[in-house]
Each structure stands twice: as structure tokens, then as C-alpha cells.
Design a protein that fits this description.
The protein is mainly α and 361 residues long. The chain has one domain (22-159, 168-287). It contains 14 helices and two strands; from the N terminus they run αααααββααααααααα. The protein has helices spanning 2-10, 22-50, 76-90, 96-121, 130-150, 173-195, 203-220, 223-229, 240-258, 267-285, 288-294, 296-315, 325-331, 336-356, and strands spanning 160-161, 169-170. A two-stranded antiparallel sheet has the order 1-2. Helix 6 (173-195) packs antiparallel against helix 10 (267-285).
Length: 361
């Protein structure tokens, strides 16, 4: 909206041409999302508290978490509101990738909202059944992946790019691309959701990865930078930097309220949506392998759950004291803040490794 307005003003006042720069609008998106979240956040927390939208805590979880029962949840709605409003303000709304990412994020947010609603209203810690959740995630992910495959104009838009190598790209074809995109979007969504078990644990890695993806989106959509760095050029992807900036800003503001001891939890409405957002941006800019690197904490958290379940069903034994992995370390004696900060440090290192793939080719 503001981009279109600035373009109209630029016809008579040339200084407004500065808003055509994606880098400026990305920075403004970070600031705008921060301001929106800081303004709306306290009011939303008060409303959630007044309506007793409180967190349900697993009976079989760490006993230290029992004090978290009743803490307002569904705070992810604040993040989504900030992201959507900011993106609508600063992004080029004629760009189809912007709408793909926005609609995917909001669709997964709806699934999470229904899940949280059932937990809060019916006091059922399990919420929406796993089968129903997975079904609707699959429908959305396959629809998005199919759209991207059908509208791809270049083979590079469906190839798998291998980091650290300039010339290596694995042709996937339409079906292969849809399958890969499906697993990336659904997998990342659920991985972030599984990680969201401690105060601030999931949101800061999400902010870091989103910031890195903003860089990838910008250089992928910039013909000169893409050529210089030896990465595929995909027109119009640069605009996703604005969305990523909005996500980073909204996430940082949410961390203000979600840091230990948390005033509010994001709930599935936030975790599922943010994971899907990271996944679909990654698919569009063709950096799936890099996402696995940067999102190593999310990956290991998800793997810990899968290994725990498989081991218990097949062998009757548990590999970890409790899954996801962050609970295992809690039961080993790590304090909650120690687990969170150490996982943040690991993510920062992995994000830097992921960013290094831009140059090390």
C-alpha cells in the first residue's frame, strides 16, 4: 500500500523513489512490525488473560513446567497480525510470491488456531487430532507446491540447488518438486511446533533464519548479485525480503513478551504458521538444503521425537529421557534458560554456516 502511494508521489517528488529499494523497505518492515507488536502486544495479553485463554500443560512433562499452566497462549496471533499488516504496507502487492507466502502462512495459522482453541475451550492438551492436523497441512502444502510447479517459467525454479557448488543442480521435474516442497513446508511447520516448548526457544531461531532467508531472497532476485555469487537468478523473489523482515521484526517484538518467564506463549497458531512461512520462502528461493543446515535445531528436535517413538514401539526402550530434545536436557539438570540460550548459540552458528554458502562455491 505504502509502496504504491510512494510511487504515485514519486511522479512529482523524486525523493520518494527511494522507497522502490527493497533493502530500505525490508528494514522499514522490521521496524514497522516491531512497533505494531509493541503497541498491540500488551493489550492482547490483557485480553487473553481476561478471557482465560491459558496454556494447558502436559501431565507427563517436566514438573517445573506446571507453574506455566494458565499463562496466556495463542500469542502467535500477534505475530501473524504484525506480519500481515507490515507486508501489506511495504511489499509490492502485485508480486505473486508475496501472496503465496502470506496465504500459506495464514492457512497454517488457521490450523494452529483451531488446535489452540480446542485446547483452551475443551481443556484438552492434545487439541486437534494429529490426523486432522496432518491432513489439512498436507492439503495446503500440496496446493502451494503444485501452484509453484505449474507456474514455474524456468527449470531452475524446480531444480534442487546444492550449496557450496556452482554448477550442481538436481533436476526434480514437476512431481519431484511438489514432493520435496511438501516435505519442506509440512516438515518445517511441525519441527518449529515441536521446538516451541520453552520460553523463547523457538522464536529466536525463527528470527535468525528469517533474517538469513531475507538475504537469500534478495540476492536470488537480483540478477547482478546472483551472477556474481554463482546462484540461480529467479525474478521477483527479492520482494520476499520484505516479508522476511516483517517476520523478523514481529518475532523480536514477541520475544520481548515471550522471554523467560514468559508473559504469553505463541501456541500452535504461531508455531505452525511460522514454520510454514520459513518452509515456503525456502522452497521459492530454492535453498532447501541450506534450510536444513540453518534450522539444525528444529531438525534435531523433530528427529528426537521420531527416534523416541520408533525406539519405544520397536524395542520398548526410550533413547532420551524425554522428547523433544530440550526436555531431555532439562531432565539432565540444565536450567530452562541454559537450554534456550545454548540452542540460540547453536542456531546462530548454523545460520552463519548457511550464509557462507553464498560465497563458498
Amino acid at each position: 500500500m505504502l509502496l504504491a502511494f510512494s510511487q504515485w508521489l514519486a511522479q512529482d517528488i523524486r525523493v520518494f523513489n527511494v522507497f522502490s529499494y527493497i533493502t530500505l523497505r525490508s528494514m522499514l518492515a522490521v521496524i514497522t512490525a516491531l512497533i505494531i507488536s509493541f503497541l498491540i502486544g500488551p493489550m492482547m495479553i490483557r485480553k487473553l488473560t481476561a478471557y482465560k485463554i491459558g496454556q494447558s500443560v502436559r501431565d507427563d512433562g517436566p514438573q517445573t513446567h506446571l507453574i506455566k499452566a494458565g499463562t496466556p497462549t495463542m500469542g502467535g496471533a500477534l505475530i501473524l497480525m504484525s506480519i500481515v499488516l507490515t507486508t501489506l504496507l511495504w511489499a509490492d502487492l502485485s508480486n505473486r510470491y508475496v501472496w503465496v507466502v502470506l496465504l500459506t502462512t495464514m492457512s497454517f495459522g488457521v490450523i494452529g488456531w483451531i488446535d489452540d482453541y480446542r485446547k483452551v475451550v475443551y481443556r484438552n492438551p492434545k487439541g486437534l487430532s494429529a490426523r486432522s492436523k496432518f491432513f489439512w497441512q498436507s492439503v495446503i502444502a500440496v496446493s502451494v507446491a503444485s501452484y509453484l510447479a505449474l507456474t514455474a517459467e524456468m527449470s531452475v525454479q524446480t531444480d534442487m540447488i546444492v550449496p557450496f557448488f556452482k554448477e550442481i543442480a538436481i533436476p526434480l521435474g514437476g512431481i519431484g518438486f511438489v514432493i520435496l516442497a511438501y516435505f519442506v513446508i509440512v516438515g518445517t511447520s511441525n519441527a518449529v511446533n515441536l521446538t516451541d516448548g520453552l520460553d523463547g526457544l523457538a522464536i529466536m531461531p525463527t528470527v535468525m533464519i528469517s533474517s538469513a532467508l531475507a538475504v537469500f531472497a534478495y540476492v536470488t532476485g537480483h540478477v547482478i548479485f546472483a551472477k556474481y555469487l554463482g546462484i540461480p537468478y529467479i525474478p521477483n523473489t527479492g520482494e520476499l525480503s520484505v516479508f522476511c523482515g516483517a517476520l523478523a521484526g514481529a518475532g523480536l517484538a514477541f520475544l520481548w513478551f515471550n522471554a523467560y518467564p514468559a508473559e504469553v506463549f505463541m501456541g500452535d497458531v504461531g508455531a505452525l504458521a511460522l514454520g510454514a512461512a520459513l518452509g515456503v520462502v525456502t522452497v521459492i528461493v530454492r535453498q532447501e538444503i541450506v534450510l536444513v543446515i540453518m534450522g539444525g535445531v528444529f531438525v534435531i528436535e523433530a528427529l528426537s521425537v521420531m527416534l523416541q517413538v520408533a525406539s519405544f514401539k520397536l524395542l520398548g526402550k526410550r533413547i532420551f529421557r524425554m522428547a523433544p530434545l530440550h526436555h531431555h536436557f532439562e531432565l539432565k539438570g540444565w536450567k530452562e534458560n541454559q537450554v534456550v540460550v545454548r540452542f540460540w548459540i547453536i542456531t546462530l552458528i548454523l545460520v552463519l554456516v548457511g550464509l557462507s554458502t553464498l560465497k563458498l562455491r
